[in-house]
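Can't paste images in this forum, so I'm doing it all in text. The chain is below; anyone willing to post the predicted C-alpha cells underneath?
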Amino acid sequence: MPAGQRVLVLDGEPGDWLPPGWEVVPQTGGGLDERLAAAFAHAARVAPHAPALLVGMDTPQLSAAVLAEPLSAARRSRTDAWYGPAADGGFWALGLARPTAELAARLLHGVPMSTARTGAALLERLTEADLTIHHLPPLTDVDTAEDARRVAAEAPGSRFAAQLATVDLEPEVAS
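Text version of the structure:
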C-alpha cells in the first residue's frame, strides 16, 4: 500500500520480521485507549497535514486491496474517519483524515477496550464528533486459537496460514 510514512508503535524491540522503511516508536504507558491516542498524536506531530490509519497487528488477512479504494485520494477528500469493525465487537482499524492529539484523545480516552462494545463505543464517539465515516469491511482479529484457524482459512495462501500450519494449537491433555 502506498504510504508517505510507515510507523510501527511497538511494545518491545522489532525483529528481523520488520520490513525496511518503517519508523519504530515505543508505545506509551497507560491503557490501550491512551496508547492508541498517543499513536495518533505522534502521527500528527511527524506529518501534521497527512491522514493517519492505525491498524491492529492481529488482522493478518488484511490485504492492500481492502484499503486501496477507501484510502484513495478521491475518497479521502470526502472522508474524516475510517472505521474497521472486528467480528468480536472491537475494531481492527481507525483512521483520521486530519489527526490531532486533541481529537484522538476525545475519540479514544475512556472507550472501554477489549469488550464486545468497544467498536460500538468508538463508532458513537466518531458520530458525536460529526465526522464523515467510511466503514471498512468487518474482519476477524486473532485473539484465540479458534480465531487463528478461521483467519488462516480466510487467507490460505498467506504467510500467517503457512506459519500457523507449523504450530500445534491443540490444547495439551494432562496425563
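Helices lie at 32-46, 64-68, 73-76, 101-108, 118-128, 145-154, 159-164. The chain has a mean pLDDT of 91.
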